[in-house]
Amino acid sequence: MKKLFLYSVLLAATSLSCRKIEVDGATTTVVSGSGTTENSILEGRISQNRTLKAQYTYKLRGLVYVTNGAILTIEPGTKIVGERGRNGGLIITRSSKIIADGTVNNPIVFTSEETTPQRGDWSGLVILGNAPTNASFNGVAGVGEIEGGVNNSDGLGLYGTPATQAQNPADNSGILRYVRVNMTVMGPKATLGNTGNNLFVWGAQIRRNSSMSLFNSIIMGYPNGLYIDATKGVPTDNNIPNSLFVQNNIIAGCTNPILYSISGNSNTPITPNTIASITAWYNNPVFGNRVLTNNSDVALVAAFNYTTPDFNPTAASPAVTGASFANPKLSAGFTPVSYKGACAVGDTWWKNWTRFN
User: Fold this and answer.
1) What is the pLDDT of residues 57-79, one digit of tens each?
2) Considering Cα of 131, then 133, then 135, then 140, what sign does the dihedral take?
3) What are the structural domain ranges in the chain?
4) Do 98 and 66 form a contact (C-beta atoms < 8 A)?
5) pTM above 0.70, yes or no
6) pLDDT tens per residue across span 188-201
C-alpha cells in the first residue's frame, strides 16, 4: 500500500481534572465511569503533549493550534468533530507532531458535528512542517504561508525554514494511518454531460512557484484536469522540467484535460508557454501520461456509485500497470507498486474503515 504524503493538510497529557487550553470560555467536562474527567472541547492552543482518548468525542471550537513542539496523540477509534457554526479545524504547526495511528477496525475520524455533514461545516486538518520549500513569505525565501485564513500574528500558519538557515528534508510531523477525514475525494462529473457543482473546478492546480509534482495518479470527473497556474508570483512553469514533474498519470472525463495561464502576471517566465506547449509537455511519451475521453475508459469498478462506490480498477483498466517510482523525488518514503491511483485490482484495505456520503 502506498504511503500518503499531504501537501497541505488541516489538525496535553491525560488529565484527572478539567482544564482549559490557553483561552477563556465555556468548557465541556465529560465524567467517565471510572470517575475521571476529560475536557472534550479543544480550542486555542495545545502547547503540551496531550492524548485524545477513544471513549470521548472531541469538539474543535474554532482553529486549534498544536504548538511549542507538542505531540498530540490520538488513540485508535477516536472521533473529532468541528463544532457547529464555529469553523473548527486542527493545525499542527512547525516542530509539533500528530500521532494519529488508527487501525482498520478502529479508524480515527475527523468530521462535522452535523448529522448530515456538508462541505464547509468545518475547516479541516492542516499539517505544517519544516522541510525545504521554494515558497517565500514577506520576502523570506524558504517559508510559505498556508491558505485559508490559518496564519496569525504569531506565524502559526507558516511552513518551511528560511533558506538562510540549516534545512532538514527529513523533517517529521508524525503519523497519519487509518485516519478518515470526511471530504470529497473525486470530481462531480460522472460523465462529460454532467454539470457538477461549480465549486469543483480543477482536479489539480499547481501554482505560485510550486514544485509540487504528480506521479502515478488518476484525475477524473472534473471540468478541468491539470491546471499549471502561472498567474501570480514567480511563474510556476519556471520549475519545468527541473523540479516540477507530472509523470505516469491518467486524466479522464475532463472537458479540458490540460490548462495553462499566465494572464495578469507581470513576471516574465524563463520560457514562454501556452496551453499547447504545456499539453505537449504532458503528452511527451517519456513521461507516461495519458488523457482518456470518458471516466468509463479508466474502467474502475464503480467509481460513481454514490451508495456503494468501488474505486478498484477492473482487470481491463489502464491503471492496472504503468506506475513508476524511478523519479528521484520518489526515492524514499514510498512502497513501489505497479498500479496507478490508490487501489489495485481486488484491494480491500480501504473498504472496511472508509465512509462515503
Assistant:
1) 999 999 999 999 999 999 999 99
2) positive
3) 29-181, 202-330
4) yes
5) no
6) 777 777 776 676 78
